[in-house]
Amino acid sequence: MNEFSLKYGCNPNQTPARIFMANGKELPVEIVNGRPGYINFLDALNSWQLVKEIKESTGMCAATSFKHVSPTSAAVGKKLDEKLKRSCFVDDIEGLDDSPLACAYARARGTDRMSSFGDWIALSDECDEVTARVIAREVSDGIIAPAYSPRALEILKTKRKGGYNIVRIDPSYLPEDTERKQVYGVTFEQGRNNFRIDRALLQNIVTKNKALPEEKAVDLLISLITLKYTQSNSVCFAADGQAIGVGAGQQSRIHCTRLAAQKADLWHLRMHEKVLSLQFAEGVGRPEKNNIIDLYLSNEAEEVLGDGVWYKNFAVRPQPFTREEKAEYLSSVRGVSLGSDAFFPFSDNIDRAAKSGVEYVAEPGGSVRDDLVIEAADRHNMVMAFTGMRLFHH
Q: Distance between CA 255 and CA 33 in Å, rounded?
């Protein structure tokens, strides 16, 4: 099959729509179940490249949660500690520790659960039963993977009343070196961005502190590969083998940094005992819990804690999580990594990142103010590598 008709394009008024191989060859994907749409395939093909490259770079299986052509997170298959399991709502998944792929997706989905609602999933390896069981209870649009175990396929086909989108991709597929797209009837052509992101990219450390532990290098690689498939401008925070905050599509880089930092801060705060010990009211579903936690951690906590509403959300009324308590908790965060898809033009990005525990940075370099950015990194005793590679994605 070298063509697949779609229900419509980005919006219902955009018809006809299809995906096809202009060179007449077979499509590298097989629709195993459901009927994916235009945006689904954009997410599928971008997200597959991301997990494929993370596995090639780190040697570990990878998963990502995608929404509207940008990742909410990406992660490798590291076991979750008990706090993280509870924070990601997977502490009851039997056999989780035995499936690195399930751990990777649990991390990716659990990073920014608000943004991941209705996500597209990509897995670097065959989807196993445990991973399918994690996916089965989440609201999701579809999945792409190189293969599925019979039991995993059976589980996934029960989603969305049997209409869940399941796509299999040929892992050996290599696209042509030149890519094209049309905008307003004009065809754009460029060489495909096949630059390899690996450990060698982090050799040019420009700060006084040059101690880059291997696990932090992995976090930086995850952040950079995540950025390669994130709508620009973009900044990505990473820790413990996963992206923990993605700031995508902002016109100003400091806004990217602030957005990514806010998401990373929320990821850390979700593992505070005050959040983990919340007792929800009977009947509150998983998506509602995400919304409640998000409000509980915000400056509008009274929306879920107020006298007339708290009992709708909680079985036991929780104590407020004060601004001072949150600030104290976040002040202890250390060892976070940060990647940027282009150079930092001002040192304010570094100063903001430091407030969220960033100690390791990878960015292209090349700004006329590089000296001021390096000076700021030195002031915070950060390790910063200049990669020399920009990662814009549009």
A: 39
